[in-house]
Design goal:
The complex is a heterodimer of chains A (116) and B (116). Helix content of chain A is 0%, strand content 51%. Chain A has strands at residues 5-7, 10-14, 19-24, 31-37, 44-49, 55-58, 61-65, 71-76, 85-92, 104-106, 110-115. In chain A, strands 2, 4, 5, 9, 10 and 11 form a 6-stranded mixed β-sheet that branches. A 5-stranded antiparallel β-sheet of chain A has the order 1-3-8-7-6, with no helix packed on it. In chain B, the strands form 2 sheets. In chain B, strands 2, 4, 5, 6, 9, 10 and 11 form a 7-stranded mixed β-sheet that branches. A 4-stranded antiparallel β-sheet of chain B has the order 1-3-8-7, with no helix packed on it. The chains are: A mainly beta (116), B mainly beta (116). The A-B interface holds A 30-31, 33, 40-45, 48, 50, 88, 92, 98-104, 106-109 and B 4, 31, 33, 42-43, 45, 48, 50, 55-56, 91, 93, 95, 98, 101-110.
């Protein structure tokens, strides 16, 4: 069973601060995704990383996939109140035919609160 | 596109009653997923379909849970009889045909189920 551990579980910061959320596993993933979820809504995909060591930037958000494809991080620069929400990482296992395609393993999530 | 549509958005029922949750995936998506989200257990995959065929139902907690996908534009998740521990937010998500390492999933707004 593939497990993803996210840390920290809760993060409360002031507007303008930087933060990093971590997603770790002992399993190798073929790709890893980050989602953001706001109260009363479903998760929304932010980014997919595929290659070990890959770095992707989305405005003030920087996503990195570990070299061994077992871990990932999300860094937010100069956080704003609009960044508040639940951040979820999700890993996709190695493709092994119809029984595994599309299955994502989700981490427990990090609840981020950015105070004005 | 309207996105993934779920109904009802909220459901309150008494223990022992039958509950049916509905989902309309994004048109053209070949994969449909049912998830359950709670504070304690996070986001759990219950079952998923490919081209209307159930591929993996290993996450379905008990025989009280059943899911169907009679056609490409409609799926149901039924709980009979319902129990208080089934209270959670249930999400439906859909995904397009396999794109190498993509696995992108698009979530609906969820159904908040409360069983008293």
């Amino acid at each position: 069973t593939q497990l993803l551990e996210q840390s920290p579980q809760f993060l409360s910061i002031q507007e303008g601060e930087n933060l990093t959320v971590y997603c770790n596993s002992s399993s190798v993933f073929s790709s890893l995704q980050w989602y953001r979820q706001e109260p009363g809504e479903g998760p929304v995909l932010l980014v997919t990383v595929v290659t070990g060591g890959e770095v992707k930037k989305l405005k003030r958000l920087t996503f990195q996939f570990g070299d061994a494809r077992k871990d990932s991080s999300l860094h937010i620069t100069a956080a704003q109140p609009g960044d508040t929400g639940l951040y979820l990482c999700a890993g996709a296992g190695r493709y092994a035919g119809g029984t595994s395609y599309g299955k994502l393993t989700f981490g427990q999530g990090t609840i981020l609160t950015v105070h004005p | 596109d309207a996105g993934v549509i779920q109904s009802p958005r909220h459901e309150v029922t008494e223990m022992g009653q039958e509950v049916t949750l509905r989902c309309k995936p994004i048109s053209g998506h070949d994969y449909l997923f049912w998830y359950r989200q709670t504070m304690m257990r996070g986001l759990e995959l219950l079952i998923y379909f490919n081209n209307n065929v159930p591929i993996d139902d290993s996450g379905m907690p008990e025989d009280r849970f059943s899911a169907k996908m009679p056609n490409a534009s409609f799926s149901t998740l039924k709980i009979q009889p319902s129990e208080p521990r089934d209270s959670a937010v249930y999400f439906c998500a859909s995904s397009p045909e396999f794109v190498v390492y993509s696995y992108e999933q698009y979530f609906g707004p969820g159904t908040r189920l409360t069983v008293t």
